[in-house]
């Protein structure tokens, strides 16, 4: 009979086996971290098109599927779709010894995945604005991942530490200057750039060297996320929605700062804009 560890291993391989060059460390992280540890006792509520029906039992093997599990359904907070996070974490590729900032940690499942990748020599600073979820994340992460520090605050209202990776699990209408400033040379940010009540691009932004005016940028996929408190603006939402309606997400090539937009502009915000030109152009 298959064990829970067998199901977890199958799930990890299923999530990442389609990647052209799968990251063995990421496969191992998904195979090791116990999703049920972060979701409380079952049965669990699984999001579908009409609501949150419960799982048929409290067997944790049911969690090792590519499903959204409700953490706080009345607030619309879910654990996050595993295949989406697997793809996004693979793109930003945290490495041993690096510093990761996780914005919107929830109860800490994907924070634990990030912590596995940076190891005990790295650090993960996890921001969660909901006090009860931050408390749960702190309690659940502390025994096995001492390299994680959970902060109950909006990441848009505090000074972020210098980071190799900023991993954002809540939708923003714009790219906060402070987050770009926190990226180290070579640093990577994954950010859902979403207009109000609509899908938007999951941006992968990379700072190249010491240049803080031009960043490589691309859309990984189209996504919808719970709003990021403090990183929403009505005017930015409207501009983003217009860009999505008139341009292909695949056309995004770079992010520019502190310069006026030119004819390669994909979408413009206050002090930053996305361009269809390569960062060197």
Number of helices: 7
| Estimated share of beta-strand residues | 15-25%
Q: Main sheet: which strands, in order across? A: 5-4-3-6-7-8-9-10-12-11
**Helix residue percentage:** 25-40%
Low-confidence stretches: none
The ordered H/E elements are: HHEEHEHEHEEHEEEHEEE
Terminal CA distance reads 58 Å
Shape: globular
Written description of the protein model:
The model has no long low-confidence stretch (mean pLDDT 95). The protein has helices at 4-16, 24-32, 82-92, 109-118, 131-141, 177-182, 234-246, and strands at 70-72, 77-78, 99-103, 123-127, 148-151, 163-168, 183-192, 200-207, 214-223, 254-257, 265-268, 272-275. α4 (109-118) links the parallel β3 (99-103) and β4. The relative contact order is 0.10. The protein contains 7 helices and 12 strands. The chain is an alpha/beta fold. It is 26% helix and 23% strand.
Write a concise synopsis of the structure shown:
The protein has helices at residues 4-16, 24-32, 82-92, 109-118, 131-141, 177-182, 234-246, and strands at 70-72, 77-78, 99-103, 123-127, 148-151, 163-168, 183-192, 200-207, 214-223, 254-257, 265-268, 272-275. The chain has 281 residues and is an alpha/beta fold. The longest helix has 13 residues, at 4-16.
Question: Could you give the topology of this structure?
Answer:
Elements: H1 4-16, H2 24-32, E1 70-72, E2 77-78, H3 82-92, E3 99-103, H4 109-118, E4 123-127, H5 131-141, E5 148-151, E6 163-168, H6 177-182, E7 183-192, E8 200-207, E9 214-223, H7 234-246, E10 254-257, E11 265-268, E12 272-275
Parallel strand pairs: 3-4, 3-6, 4-5, 6-7
Antiparallel strand pairs: 1-2, 7-8, 8-9, 9-10, 10-12, 11-12
């Amino acid at each position: 009979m298959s064990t829970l560890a067998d199901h977890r291993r199958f799930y990890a391989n299923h999530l990442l086996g389609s990647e052209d060059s799968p990251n063995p460390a990421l496969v191992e992280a998904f195979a090791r971290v116990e999703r049920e540890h972060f979701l409380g006792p079952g049965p669990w509520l699984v999001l579908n098109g009409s609501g949150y029906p419960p799982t048929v039992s409290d067997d944790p093997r049911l969690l090792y599927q590519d499903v959204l599990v409700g953490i706080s359904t009345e607030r619309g907070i879910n654990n996050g779709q595993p295949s989406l996070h697997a793809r996004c974490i693979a793109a930003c590729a945290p490495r041993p010894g690096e510093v990761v900032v996780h914005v919107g940690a929830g109860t800490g499942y994907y924070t634990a995945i990030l912590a596995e990748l940076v190891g005990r020599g790295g650090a993960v600073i996890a921001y969660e604005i909901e006090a009860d979820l931050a408390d749960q994340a702190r309690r659940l992460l502390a025994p096995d991942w001492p390299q994680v520090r959970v902060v109950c605050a909006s990441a848009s209202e505090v000074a972020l530490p210098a980071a190799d990776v900023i991993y954002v699990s809540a939708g923003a209408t714009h790219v906060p200057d402070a987050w770009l400033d926190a990226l180290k040379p070579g640093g990577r940010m994954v950010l859902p750039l979403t207009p109000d009540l609509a899908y938007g691009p999951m941006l992968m932004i990379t700072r190249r060297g010491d240049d803080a005016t031009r960043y490589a940028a691309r859309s990984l996929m189209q996504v919808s996320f719970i709003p990021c408190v403090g990183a929403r603006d009505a005017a930015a939402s409207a501009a983003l929605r217009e860009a999505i309606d008139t341009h292909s997400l695949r056309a995004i090539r770079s992010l520019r700062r502190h310069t006026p937009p030119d004819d390669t502009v994909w979408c413009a915000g206050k002090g930053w804009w996305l361009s269809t030109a390569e960062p060197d152009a």
